[in-house]
Amino acid sequence: MARKSARKDPDRYLFQRQGNYHYKRRVPMSVAELDERAPMIRQSLKTDDLALARAKRDALEAADDALWASILLEQPQDPARARYQAAMRRVEALGYTYRTSHQLAQTGLIDEIIDRFRAIDETRTPVATAEAIAGMVEAPPVTVTEAFEIYVDEIVSHEHVGKSANQKAQWKKVKQRAVNNFVALCGDKAMHEITRDDAMKIYRHWLERIVPKEGRPTHSASSGNRDIGNMRVLYESYFKHIGDEERKNPFNGLSFSVKKKRTRPPFPTEWITGTIMKPGNLASLNKEARGIVLAIIETGARPSEIANLSESAIRVDHPVPHIAIEPRIDPDDPREIKTVSSERQVPLIGVALEVFRRHKKGFPRYRNREGELSGTLNNYFKDNKLFPTSQHKIYSFRHAFEDRMKEGGLDEELRRILMGHAIDRPRYGSGGSLKWRQTELKRIELPFDPSIV
Questions:
Q1: What does the pLDDT look like over 26-82, one tens digit per residue?
Q2: Taking the model in full, what pTM does it have?
């Protein structure tokens, strides 16, 4: 009860002495033997401003709570890590950025070093705080897997605010593969122990798969570059995060040349109308997957964009029926789109309009399940011989849509807007009215039998 009451007191652990506020707190008996400051912590906050004193108190209080909790846990975190994190909080509470003594020496900022030592009052500053200010608490070794979790949870977490759970998982999966491969080949080494030899081991691992001495390649150069690149980014981001920006990156300069990637061939228009849209050929495909395929034909949208449309983005009752491909701003179910230029409004014509008249709420079966949709469609098309060649994929519909617009004489900038591609000039206006876009698209509209929907 006393603990709970203390928490309600806005001035807990604060007292004034000669005008300045001090942080005064008793070390719990349960950890007294392991905290050199016992039995009582006394520390000047070097301010007579109550609001600032409370803010500094909060930081010191959080540091001590975390340190004591780590000591009391049945399976405590690394004691060295607990001391380091507590040191960081103590220094931040006094208005400094934590730097080790080595980092302080490297900065060459003599004034800052002098200022830090002036802040240490030998008679009043606790040893733990003095050591923290002077940078005498060394950063504990952080393994590759630990650094990756720091990267995900702290360094880039803000970049994924708008991602869906599935998008976050897919993003992490690719990065995790690079870490797993490194650990398998080099061990879960401390980050500061990674050498150029380790980086070369990863490089040779991929070289054997990209350019094998015997047999055919099992992986592309892009796969190797992605793995090495992800380790390069992890290494650079982690050391920048802890203030060691000048550290040489052992993964620098390691990459494989990539030949120009062969694009997927488009579906011939005659194949779309005579085979894919032939009544009966999509009949045994489930309604939602079938609707998505048919919608792609006349919108050129990515399968994931169609699958993740929300009800509010499907506007068939608008004077110009259209879909709005845009980020999903929903705290319970967010989703970002590929790029800024991918955000667009596409008029609905032909079979796409008929599809959305029947699926006004979208395709809940495949929302946030792009992988499942891809597998379903590719397997169905292979099993039913709906691909003209082995090189064709579902994405070939998108290439076909772009070719049809080009052959139909649609304006190049309009084509870019409808495809969600970037425009290589300053963008003015809205890119033309929906009515104009609809009129232009009508020029390439394909005939269809309503029974296929």
A1: 988 877 767 777 888 888 888 899 999 998 888 888 888 877 876 666 444 566 666
A2: 0.62
CA 149 to chain centre: 12
- Per-residue pLDDT of 87-121, as tens digits, reads 767 776 666 666 666 666 666 667 777 777 776 66
Q: Are residues 230 and 297 in the same domain?
A: no
Q: By the 8 A CB rule, do 250 and 182 touch?
A: no
Residues 6+ apart with CB under 8 A from 2: none
Boundary residue ending a domain (104, 133, 162): 133
Beta bridge mates, 190: 143
Q: What is the pLDDT of residue 262?
A: 61
Sign of CA dihedral 106, 110, 112, 118: positive
Same structural domain, 184 and 294: no
Q: How far apart are CA 109 and CA 286, in angstroms?
A: 68
Considering its fold, how many domains does the chain have in total?
3
Write down the pLDDT at residue 128.
Answer: 65
Whether 260 is covered by a domain: the verdict is no
Dihedral over Cα of 323, 324, 330, 335: its sign: positive
- Give every CB contact of residue 138 below 8 A, 6+ residues apart in sequence: 80, 84, 100
For tokens 């964009």, the residue is: 305
- Helical packing angle, 370-383 and 287-299, nearest 10°: 90
